[in-house]
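Thread: "does anyone have the structure for this chain?"

Original post by V.I.:
We have the sequence but no experimental structure in hand. Need at least a predicted one for the grant figures.
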Amino acid sequence: MAIGERIHFFRLLRGMTQKYLGMALGFPEKSADVRLAQYETGSRTPKADLTAALAQVLDVSPHALSVPDIDSYVGLMHTLFTLEDNYGLKVTEQDGELALQVDFRKNKDAARLHEMLWTWREQAAKLEAGEISQDDYDRWRYHYPEYDGSQIRAKMPPEGLI
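Reply from O.Q.:
Generated one for you, tokens below.
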């Protein structure tokens, strides 16, 4: 998903108009909505300082705005192939279902991704068990890794397996 789509997603999630968000960023009232529309449609790409400002106004991490381009299935597949190369991601079958697994023994980066995914699973389990609200879960996701205060340390593989 391109950055413009992420801006649009979070703007709507926060109940903001393009004009409101543009003015909150300091654009003149006359052109605020036009400027935001340009970013959301991808005709303009915000620079790093504007991305940081957008993230602050939208109350998310800048990382939540800058995600890999997965607008097509082919782009998504190539993203997954890169994760296989860099982090040991594997497609497996479990009980007739497809699953993605991380081979944490591949390298240090794969072990770190494995730890991060355990943390994600823990937060998702808390949501499923009713221990946290959907808002709490979304706050954790949209601020990751900055918003990690309530997180319990991720489970690590047994000693000697890395």
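V.I.: this helps a lot. The helical segments are 3-13, 18-24, 32-41, 48-58, 62-65, 73-87, 108-128, 134-142.
O.Q.: and Residues 149-162 have pLDDT under 50 and may be disordered.
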